[in-house]
Amino acid sequence: MTDPAQKNDADDETEFSVRDWRLEATAPCFYSEEETGDTVTSIRAKSLHDLAFAVALRDSRLITESQLAFVTRNWTAFGPVKLVEHLKQLSLLSEDQASEIEKLSVRFLNEADREASSQNAKNYQDLNTRLIAALNSDGRLASILGLGGSSFIAFEQIEDRSVGSRYTLLRKIGQGGLGTVWLARDENLNRYVALKELTNGARAGDIALEHFRREAEITGRLEHPGIVPIHQFGHDEKSGKAFYVMRFLGRRTMSDAIDEFHERRQTGAEHKMLLHRLLSSFVSVCHSVGHAHSQKVIHRDLKPTNVALDEFGQVTLLDWGLSKVNDKTGLYEVAGRSEPGDLHDSSSASTGRVIGTPLYMAPEQAAGRLDEVDVSTDVYGLGGILYTILTGVGPHHATPEVTGSSIGREHFLARIVSNDVVAPKHRNSTVPAELDAICMKALSRARYQRYRSATELAEEVQRFMAGAPVHAYQAPIKSRVSHWMMRHPTLTQVLLLAVSLVIISLGAFVLTERGARVRLAASRLSSAIETTGDLEAKLESEARALERDLHFITDLPLMSAITVSQNANRHEGIETTNASDDQVEVLASSSPRPSDMPAFDHTIQTPEQWLDRQGELFDGFLNANPAYLAMVCYKQENENQLRELVRSERFSVGQQPRRFPTRLLKTTDSDSASPETRLLAQLRPGAALLGTNDQFSDDLSTNHHSPLVVSGIAAIYDPMGEFFGMNVIELDLGERLRELIPAIAPEYVNVIIADRSGDILLEYRSGRFLEVAENQTVRSRFPELTDPLNTVGSVSDADYRRSLFAKEIDLGQPYSHARFGVIAYVSQDD
């Protein structure tokens, strides 16, 4: 057998055997014709098997399309893992279930083999596409697995012929029981339309033609903005086929919008407006169905895929091919003509047939009692659409998860007739109780318990959206009291006035006693204010000392020498390989330094030696300042890269500093410079920026990403005045606070330090530091402080049992990156 990848384009007229899929693989071809080998063949065969397995899985009702899309987000049909193995790894299928579905998928492959064998493939690409279309005619599962889309339109789906001398067929977009739907171009008006054509030519009086005409006439009879309009009905003289023309609505349906909503919900990206839009679309569908009912037309196949949505919110109800007309005589008449052999006539030979989509079918439909099909049947279908909006699955889906075993059609229909639907709230706990009640009322097995009309169902949903009580739901007492007060505002005001008078009387009594306690609270508050002020002064002193050290190391001639030596290739005309004698002399007479900092000499010859001197300077500063954790000198290589020139650090206070020469490069994740480097590049030389380490980007390679570690950053400019990089000093402010607070605060004053988001970092109470529980916030401890970082003042007279003073301390002015909330309080027990 010849490998299809080796065939030339000249072989397009050759007939291929579809049965070659077992050896040659017939999954969609994404490869060039030059690619050959067992690997490509294996990937193609695996993709086809995965599609067959997905079709069998869906038909066995173990999983829905939306669930399949969710569980295959991290899987590809072109990878080494089969779909069945992927689902077993997720514990979504047992071994017995997988074996059963595998057998069914093999049967589907054989059926697709026979169907495609009846056609003459033009080439292997055509052969691949025919097999996919035979397995999954609507293309939804193929698209989910990455095997569908416009790249895989079969050759027979593309037409280049005219219909009725006015319409040019472009592409097949759907296939139904009676006909084929094409995308066509109206040559008279130069617009795109949808053209439905009877599958086979029929003579006048044929049942298929009469049903086709009846479908078009019923659809054309329903003139409503929410129902697809019919433009024309006719016969094509060349093919002899009947056709009718509709407005082209695109390919997006309510099912697609529901799938997107629940995928967002499952990934935590749910947005309330998405549910509101779906409910608004659902109300529009209800009104469309209500109009059809006013014309005695019952749709009988209501489901999300039969509702078209466009990008502007227009909702259109489609597919009236299974509709039924319920007039008083039981006959359907259009243009003075009664329909013989009516598919929906209870006296016809087709009585007892089950008509509709099983996942959304009303019990009377599943039981074959077509004479009972009426308005309430469509109300049940609308309830099924609402159910899918709320849960993501149809109302007759077996369980919320893909569990259980596959069942046959007969057993499935029997279950619809005998079993109640699982409540939406049991599948999705976030469903509002009102919507759950509305949905379950519409899906009642007893027809008389459902809503009397589609319009009544729409009004119930609109009441929920407006916040009004719904008739299907008995609200709790608290909600009923709230609604009662809204309905009786005058009586509510009288009752509130009476309650207010009682409260005022009690308040006057309490205030007398409370006055003394408030005065005591005021004296306590004075101590808390004084403690906060002293602590602020100490912290500001620490910040200014950090800035002075930054300016010192940045303004040293040593720093200038380093920038010159590092920029050897940046400026023309400057000799930078070695430092000049003048520079060495300047360094030798530089500003005072820590006592253990080594002196400069005239032996420095290379950039590495200058950096070694800088490292010795950093070591000296760390030894002289135990609260400093690290000192780093960075050079900006380009817009998104920083390189460490020198790093000296200790991991905790008291340890000896160490240098880490191996950290040479730090690359940002963004396409531009970090916020710190962009800001510093705009500052004047010698400017410093202070901030807590949790506020800086990861461009700064620090081991102390803590809100209690403050980093000072100073901009470095080379002698040419261009931005070179930055010096960084890390200060362990937490350790300093543990030393300062006990020395400042009296024993009856408690102190809390919070970060800029209100999380408690340190708590000093009753003379000792307490262990702070994870995620403990100032708001939970002090509800009266709405925002501790934006509050300056006391709240002592808001509650006499606690004298409290809260203030924001900003150590990083004028750039607020080092902000803390300080709360000093005295409890009554203290």
From TrEMBL:
<dbReference type="GO" id="GO:0004674">
    <property type="term" value="F:protein serine/threonine kinase activity"/>
</dbReference>
<keyword id="KW-0548">Nucleotidyltransferase</keyword>
<keyword id="KW-0812">Transmembrane</keyword>
<keyword id="KW-1133">Transmembrane helix</keyword>
<dbReference type="InterPro" id="IPR011009">
    <property type="entry name" value="Kinase-like_dom_sf"/>
</dbReference>
<feature type="transmembrane region" description="Helical">
    <location>
        <begin position="491"/>
        <end position="511"/>
    </location>
</feature>
<protein>
    <submittedName>
        <fullName>Serine/threonine-protein kinase</fullName>
        <ecNumber>2.7.11.1</ecNumber>
    </submittedName>
</protein>
<feature type="domain" description="Protein kinase">
    <location>
        <begin position="167"/>
        <end position="465"/>
    </location>
</feature>
<dbReference type="GO" id="GO:0016779">
    <property type="term" value="F:nucleotidyltransferase activity"/>
</dbReference>
<keyword id="KW-0067">ATP-binding</keyword>
<dbReference type="Pfam" id="PF00069">
    <property type="entry name" value="Pkinase"/>
</dbReference>
<keyword id="KW-0808">Transferase</keyword>
<keyword id="KW-0472">Membrane</keyword>
<keyword id="KW-0418">Kinase</keyword>
<dbReference type="InterPro" id="IPR000719">
    <property type="entry name" value="Prot_kinase_dom"/>
</dbReference>
<keyword id="KW-0547">Nucleotide-binding</keyword>
